[in-house]
Amino acid sequence: MTVLRQSVQSSLLVSAFAGGLSVAALAQGQLAAVDKVFADFNAPDRPGCAVAVSEGGTELFARAYGMADLEHGIPNTPATVFEPGSVSKQFTAAATILLALDGKLSLNHDVREYIPELPDYGETITIRHLLNHTSGLRDWGSVAGIEGWPRTTRVHTHTHMLDIASRQKSLNYSPGEYYSYTNTGYNLQAVLVERVSGMSFAEFSRVRIFEPLGMTKTEWRDDFTRIVKDRAVAYSRTRDGAYRMNMPFENVHGNGGLLTTVSDLLRFTHNLETGELGGPEFLKEMHTQGVLNSGRTIQYASGLFIDQYKGIREVQHSGGTAGYRGFLTRFPDHGVAVAVMCNNGSANAGGLAHQVADLFLGAAIASDEAAPS
């Protein structure tokens, strides 16, 4: 077996797809097509990706392509740990909502009850505003860049984030007036969870989310110097075509910063169907889309985009941190979920995930496109 072939690994197929395909047919058909989707990343001289697909909560396969570590010649495997960037936000939202269900906080309360460092703007910013990106707070990373310390130029921490947020003299808009994506709201939630629970955000997540769901290779990057077993090095490509390391050397997390595998992502997204962890009210809050003051419903819920893909209902989020890329998507009406993560900054994880989804939603897509409008 060549090094290249070793870099493309698959878990055992434990189920046939619900379209009636046998395991053998799935292996010969869909898997070959999946390999083709990732062909550009399947080389011993470039960083790559991992992908996993589940149906009805059962993982059909997990495969990996390209290299996890170019310097040491280590290939990606289905068990490789990546950072999925803002895919992390749904985990932060889950922690916040679990505390609300515990009766420890209210999503409709003023966030200043828990984080008094924030200025009094004369208007109430609720925790729900943070969940939906409708708070009016500026993105702390953008402000840090204006101040001469863009992300990656120093080891940013939650202390830095809080300092920037506390110095924002006015809001971009009245809370609930508009939707404007900002990392600040999710970093504030991580701080809020720590203060309300009395545990570090990483520990709370481990005890309340990761361990109960069997996510054995998932943790937060709350200390970027910590050794993480099986972690892929992140790379970006320069103009001359060479790859250079591009790692997220920062300790802020909650907005991003999750360390995980494609299989662990599928475990979490399946729980967003079953509610085994959290129950019906948890599912309701996770999928409650924001409503602006005008009454307009936005696509963003609690760390999740509720949207459509080729006419099919989709729940998804993309992400990118330094040279990492990620995309986690779920098609509730068809029971299909796809997780893609890459350590190649040139990868379009969302595009790759949708190409894979097409292979398993083909009949549904064709049926929807053929339906009269």
What do you see in this structure?
- There is one protein chain.
- Strands 2-1-12-11-10-9 form a six-stranded antiparallel beta sheet.
- It has 373 residues and is an alpha+beta fold.
- Helices cover 32% and strands 16% of the residues.
- A hairpin with a 2-residue loop joins strand 9 and strand 10 (312-321).
Q: Mean of the pLDDT scores?
A: 91
E-strand count:
12
Q: What portion of the residues fall into strands of 2 or more residues?
A: 15-25%
Whole-angstrom Rg: 21 Å
By CATH, the topology of the largest domain is Beta-lactamase
Instruction: Note the run of SSEs as H and E.
Output: HHHEEEEHHHHHHEEEEHHEEEEH
Distance between the termini: 51 Å
CATH superfamily of the largest domain: DD-peptidase/beta-lactamase superfamily
